[in-house]
Amino acid sequence: MHVSLDDQRSLAVLSDALDVLQRLVDPIDEPQLVLPTPCDEFDVRRLLGHLIGWQRVVAACAVGEAPPFADGSPTYRLRPGRAAADLRHASTALVASLVRATVIDLPYRGPTDRSIVLIEQVAEMVIHTWDLARALGEEAVFDERTVAVAHLGLTELLGESFAPMGFRAAHVGSGAPADLDGLIARSGRRPVDLNQT
């Protein structure tokens, strides 16, 4: 299977972003699962369920399997004591499946080029890792290359592909800074959200 140089770079960036996320999740204990996050709809438990669930959906779609998806959402539910192991398994499967796919038939969008799915996944992982870090009173550190790819992915997420479904506005302002704070601001959060002591 041929993987373009751009997709190889995006796969490497996605792997790096997933490593940052995994390092935050590994030490999480059960009491931390109820902490609020800057993503208003999620506490830590629901955010982890969202991340792991969508990784499983995308991985299944990438290899042509029926995704674990029903009623517009992943069917995955986080079980006690399983966050780190389930994330590790889902992340490994996600990257492996994206290496093999060229077009991914997603349940919410239909056939989508791997290059788009890759950069959108980077954006999702970086932004939600930031959410998780804020909730835990930690810091998520990403290199410039990862943040740059996340900006590209967020542009896709905010763009035409989701606008007809009412998820997000079709137009994205281009004046936001290209650093992590700029990415967070573009996602609708404020870099000071949930500053914990």
UniProtKB/TrEMBL annotation:
Instruction: Give the highest taxon in the source lineage.
Output: Bacteria
Matching entries from InterPro entries are given as:
DinB/YfiT-like (IPR034660), Maleyloyr_isom (IPR017517), MDMPI_metal-binding (IPR024344)
Question: Where do the TM regions start and end?
Answer: none
Mycothiol-dependent maleylpyruvate isomerase metal-binding domain spans which residues?
Answer: 15-133
* Keywords recorded for this protein, A-Z: Isomerase
Pfam families in the cross-refs: MDMPI_N
User: What are the GO MF terms of this UniProt record?
Assistant: isomerase activity; metal ion binding
NCBIfam families in the cross-refs:
maleylpyruvate isomerase family mycothiol-dependent enzyme (TIGR03083)
**UniProt-recorded name of the protein:** Maleylpyruvate isomerase family mycothiol-dependent enzyme
Q: Which organism is it from?
A: Solicola gregarius
